[in-house]
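ok so I'm stuck.
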Amino acid sequence: KGQITRFVDAENPEVRLDDGQTASFYKADVQALAESEAPKNTALKVGQRVEIVGSLTPGGHKGKKGEITRFVDAENPEVRLDSGHTAAFYKADVQPVPEAPKSVALKVGQRVEIVGSLTPGGHKGKK
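replied:
not stuck anymore, here's the structure
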C-alpha cells in the first residue's frame, strides 16, 4: 500500500509505498483504497456474499465463498456456496466479502494498494 506522489505519464502513477520506497506502476496494478474501511462486525443479511472463515461448522468448507439464502435461526445463515452446495453455518464461521471497489479515477495524494503484477519488482500486495 502507498500514496500516489505524481503521474509519470497520462495514466501511470508513481507511488510512495508504506515502507518508504518509491516506484512507478502500471495503472492496472494499482487500486484505490476506500476512504473508510467498513467495520468487520457488520450485520449479515440475505443476498450478501460471504466467505467461510471458520471451522466450527463441520464439512471442511473453510475458504469457500457463497451467498446467504436465508437464516436458519436468529443469527446462523444458510449459504449457497459457489459450488452450488447449500449448508447452514455458525455465524462465527461466516464473514462478509468486501464489495469490489467501484472504478475510481486515480489522483495525486490518494492512498492505493498494489494489486497487480504487470509492473516488475514484486510489489503486489506490498504493505
